[in-house]
Amino acid sequence: MADMDQWVPEPLYREFIARLPIACVDVAIVHRGAVLLVKRKDHPARGQWWVPGGRVRKGEKLRETAARKAREETGLECHVGPIVHTAETIFPDGPGGIPVHSINACFFLYPTHSAARPRLDRHHAAAKWVRTIAEDLHPYVVRCLEAAGLERGRTAAGARPRRRKRS
Q1: Structural domain total, the chain
Q2: CATH of the domain at 101
Q3: How far is CA 17 from CA 13, 40, 75, 101, in A?
Q4: What pLDDT, on the 0 to 100 scale, is given for residue 96?
Q5: What is the pLDDT of residue 161?
Q6: Do 140 and 87 form a contact (C-beta atoms < 8 A)?
Q7: Residue range(s) defining the domain that contains residue 107
Q8: pLDDT of 61 strictly over 50
């Protein structure tokens, strides 16, 4: 496993993102027919609903990154399933105004505990469980949600519809 305390100093990281694509892992955490989205506080995609995720550290396997990002960003311990989507994203609004090009692998995860209550890190403003794909999501997020079983305007495959209380 990668040394979790080794970070690239910020000036050097900015030089990297200005010149190279960055390897990232995102996670579609599925629980009771819904997928967890988080609202980003940081660039790129600041203010947008996104799947949790981030950079792969040197020496870290992609599956290890998926488990780490779920734990660090949402506080959820998860079982890591397969990669369900791969893509690249290019954002003009990266840190410090530097465009960011990332190569992404999105994994299917599910929580190890039945009471999955996210505890967000400082990089996210909110979290929500979604059962359908909203029209205003970034195309990459849409593809990750589709790969996790959600459809536009329909509940996840195999999800039980919520029962309405009788009055």
Answers
A1: 1
A2: 3.90.79.10
A3: 6, 19, 27, 7
A4: 86
A5: 39
A6: yes
A7: 16-147
A8: yes
Q: Give a yes or no: residue 152 inside a domain.
A: no
Q: Residue 49's closest CA among 134, 131, 157, 152?
A: 134
CB 104 within 8 A of CB 8: no
The total of other beta-carbon atoms located within 10 Å of residue 11's CB is 8
Domain annotation covers residue 163: no
Check residue 5 and give its pLDDT: 52
Give CA–CA dist 13/46, Å, rounded: 19
The pLDDT, as a whole number, for residue 4 is: 47
| Cα four-point dihedral sign 41, 5, 77, 119 | negative
C-alpha dist (Å) from residue 137 to 1, 47, 89, 92, 107:
33, 11, 14, 17, 18
Task: Provide the residue count of the chain.
Answer: 167
Kindly tell me if the per-residue pLDDT of 15 is higher than 70.
Answer: yes
- The predicted structure's pLDDT at residue 98: 94
